[in-house]
């Protein structure tokens, strides 16, 4: 723990040394978004954020605000209890039914956090005699679930189907049940899981499959229904589809889509559901309204895709390093080291573009980057200006390399 604190101090010191002047104390982390927006407005400059999950650009949609206001007036803010014993509200069931229908699953269950959803589901589904195989670039919430699970756990190389097959061939026969865990759209690299191949392997090795669709609902597929719509696969072939309400649904919370009996079991036995409060009704109402907006305004999904492809194409043309990103809502730009990443982020902010650095802790030490969350809200002009700002920053670096920092 102590070393974590000193690492945090080290990162902030480096950011300050990198010359951050726009942010308070030169610290690029925890900058209040509303303050940055207000300051840009006051100074009459442009302001574009690529730091937020609002993929379809609906966070200020009137229908979502209205739904939240009405729920607030009707039932108040909180659920006031575990849903099992007092916290159940009509809006929970209504929203879960609509969510399951949208995703194409038999049933859905919501929890108070996306992180908690992965943690509690993965850690409680399997026992000592079981096996869990997960992609090495899985989100921390998946890792936390794997870490507290009693099953044998083995990681496979990122998106490497040959390696997944190898691990299954070596390990599957020695265990009772097997769960394969992947994300659909990877949150730090912006590439997509090879679902058709994973489904084949899952069937061949009689395993279960959990797919974390945190970043792909509203993003993948023509109407934003996620990775199954993208590949033309049947969602019922995935045993557990996990999602979050904090991204496309612009609110907060997590959900599990699965067959009814599985979720009936979870309603009584999943610790993160049973021993935690139900989703606040205000949030459930807002997320429900967001779902309706996604269904009513599918053109937003197309606009997001156009924007993401434009960002990626322009970035590649500018010679920037985008790693394996495929042009779906998340595009990272890699820099050679932490200090250059910090300087690039600061340079963007000085030009009215907010995209914080992602350095060690969030990603491996040698792979710092700035992650751009693309939104349907962005204009081509904003995207082009952002890529141009990055290009000119990189060009200035090659002329005079970044000064060495302590
Ligand atoms: N899964 C993935 C892949 C994520 O990226 C995140 C958070 N960014 C979560 C789960 C957790 O979701 P939440 O922030 O809604 O708790």
From TrEMBL:
Pfam families: Aminotran_1_2
SUPFAM superfamilies linked: PLP-dependent transferases
InterPro entries (alphabetical): Aminotransferase_I/II_large, AON_synthase_class-II, PyrdxlP-dep_Trfase, PyrdxlP-dep_Trfase_major, PyrdxlP-dep_Trfase_small
Key words, A-Z: Transferase
Cofactor: pyridoxal 5'-phosphate
Residues in Aminotransferase class I/classII large domain copies: 49-390
Coiled-coil blocks: none
GO molecular function, one term: pyridoxal phosphate binding
Gene3D superfamilies: Aspartate Aminotransferase, domain 1, Type I PLP-dependent aspartate aminotransferase-like (Major domain)
Name of the featured protein: 8-amino-7-oxononanoate synthase
Organism: Rhizomicrobium palustre
